[in-house]
Amino acid sequence: MHSHPNVTAVRDALVGAGVDAEIVILDEAVHTAAAAAAALEIEVGQIANSLIFDADGEPLLVLTSGAHRVDTAKVAATLGVAKLRRATPEFVRRHTGQAIGGVAPLGHPKPVRTLVDVDLQQYPTVWAAGGVPQSVFPITYAELVRVTDGTPAEVA
Questions:
Q1: Alpha helix (H) ranges present in the chain?
Q2: Does the pLDDT of residue 2 top 70, yes or no?
Q3: Positive or negative: CA dihedral 45, 11, 59, 77
């Protein structure tokens, strides 16, 4: 699994951004923030969920704390988009090259507009998916914003 192309793309993107983060391969896939937090023995809020939305036909990545849900109306209003909805699995794969449950904040075929939940900044380390459902990596909030070229936002 270490050599999965998605994991390699994420690792290469992290290295290219100057982040020395080790991608951790868990014993089994973690499809929810709660499952990932339990496997890592951390608070669920430290999980940076990568959620892809369809924003008027364009991909939008919202990195949100595992402790809460994205308020799509609030995010749509913030961005000035008419329609913001959870993307289909096909839309996610087309724009990220990754499957729902393992979408990483980076390592996509081309950059995706990204919002980073300000609630994540309370933690010294947050954990994000590494390209497949059983891979995760630790990163600081500041580095997560930097490597994704993301915009800090209130998304809940």
A1: 5-16, 33-40, 72-79, 89-96, 141-148
A2: no
A3: positive
